[in-house]
Amino acid sequence: MSAKDVESEALRLPLKERARLAEHLLGSLEDGAEADSEDLWLDEAERRYQAYREGKVEATPADEALRRARSELP
Asked: What pTM does this model have?
């Protein structure tokens, strides 16, 4: 089974199962990959902040964002 096939199947899982799988996969990476992952998240945060500052995206109040996220959980 190819990685693309696995990804396709994984995306069909319920949200909580996908989250558990993602956590397990991330935990299986080497220690060095953890630093790389953190750098990627920091880069993503900076990209999103710049988009916000440039008016390309609007901010969502935390209470609304949390409400939306909670509504997605079973």
From this structure: 0.44
